[in-house]
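Fold this: Tyrosine-type recombinase/integrase
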Amino acid sequence: MTRELVPAGSRELTRDHIRFYRAVMDGVEMAKAWATYLAVDGDYQDTLAKATLGWVRQALIQEALDAGQPALVGLFRREPWRVKTSTTTKPTLAEFSERFADAGDWSEVELQAMWKEEYGETNPSEARAAARRERLNQRLRQALQLLERATRRSPAREDAVERWLAPNLAKNLAAAGLASLGAVADALTARTNIRWKEVPGVGDVWARRLQEWFDEHGLKPHPPALPLAPPPPPANASRLVPLERFELPFVGVAPLPSPTGSAPFSQAGNALGVQNDRQAIESWLKAKASNANTLRSYRKNAERLLLWCYLERRRTFSQLTVDDATHYRSWLENLGRLDEATWIKAGWRLPASEWIGKRAAKRDTPEWRPFDGPLSPDSVNQDLLTIRSLFKYLKEFRYLQDNIWDALGKTLATRIKLADATEQFVGRSFTDEEWRHVVSPLSPDGPELERRLLLVLWLGFGCGLRAREMLSLKLGSIRPGREKWRLKVLGKGNKTRLVPLTSPTRLALLGYLDSVKVNFDKVIEATRAREGHPTFEEPLLRSRRGRRGGSSPEARDALQYTQLYDSLKSHLKARAAELAASNPEAAAKFRDASTHWLRHTCATLALKNGVPLPGVQKLLGHTTLNTTSTYVTEDDEALGVDMERFTSRFS
């Protein structure tokens, strides 16, 4: 079958097209790259793939011209599968550097010297040609990354099929009367046979790929008209779906009139510009969820409430009462703890088993459920805390008139604070024995990289620092004293705190400073200097770039996050390998561990060893949704004594 190729400009160039092009350029087998990025265009054919590469190249040239970057045109005129062609079997410098776990610590000059040691000198013309190819390849990759990150239009229901889909596929769809993406989305949902007999030339495989592409780009069919009564759900189907798939109003669920008999609070004047409860939650998540972990936690708690409101209580957020709030707390506490007969007898509409599913079920699968088992009392309190924060936000921006969760009283607030404070530290952490296994092979008198890693471990375990906080430390951050040393740490929200430097951490610090030729006098000078002074601003943790073979006596470049992360992960994997035969469970734990485990371990073991909770909170600089004044009244001297006694057990 002859495949048509549209001219550049008449079909949208997508990120998947650029990724396909770049994969081929990087030496990925063309068939594999096609299957990964362009399966929606049909089965792989060599001629079709090469023709598509030609079209992508033309489109990239056009984008470069439109963006006012004519210098990129010459780069894109090269055939991508010829980019890596070389007249020598010797690896490029980039390929050579991939063999070293700590390559990020070496400069390009140092890597070149190492390359020459292994492969010898090359003749000048060959070296110049290889260097040109390397520079050209690097420029081409940078250009592709630039265009890939560029803002691109998303597919819309009203768009013509030929604007986004492969020409042959678009022709078949248009011949069947499906001229727009919206029409295709509706027809895919309404098809009566898996083979999609209604569209000749497009079978079940292509239909499945199309459906995946539509789901990826958020193109949904028009929802059907709401029936007067809910239709029976399909076998094994659940009415419980994640927040992003929950449509309001939900089929068969009509919220009851306001329980008070009066009209519900008008949301027309809300400052959020949202129309329903799901949009209100999404607005709150965008405003308050500052990272991926917070987003997952907040979204989980909010979508549980949303599903409960519409499926159990059959009320919108604005119709909820204080009585509903107390019922929801009771519902959370009892879910999964009562037998089904008792549960139904209590008056709940949905069986408890319908709310609970597998722990690892993905959000886009039918197996997903809002819960994976009963909640602990602390988890119930955490849920309620998050919901109260949500309603506070919605009240502040006039989406809601009241925050009903405030009525649960001070007892709830106190329980929530304690649960929130302790639950932060119980997560993933090492035991006493495991921590000793982590740190025991390293010495403050070892090589520089070993000393640096030892300091990183103690900054996390002995001071409770986040990775970013470690990397922000400067010589001026050290506060030495006659007996007690401290660190001035810049934490989240640009808030600073002083943390005690206990004996083991101080020993690791001094050993590392000695390895990078920083003596104590310079530390004192940095401490006395003001911020902005060159000595004050010198980084504490440093990269080895530019110092191979002792060519430079003192390191000045700051350590980067990837270097810190890679060195720690490499160390933990090595420790895991030692445990693989004797303790596979612990080995798996070590392989999963990351820099943040050090912080968790600091908290959990400190609490177990008698360091007061307010002191640990202050040490970590942790801000909860309900921060209390006790977190800032802990005596600095007492905290230092407690941490000295605790960490000395491991030195």
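Strands lie at 478-479, 485-490, 496-501. The first helix runs from residue 15 to 25.
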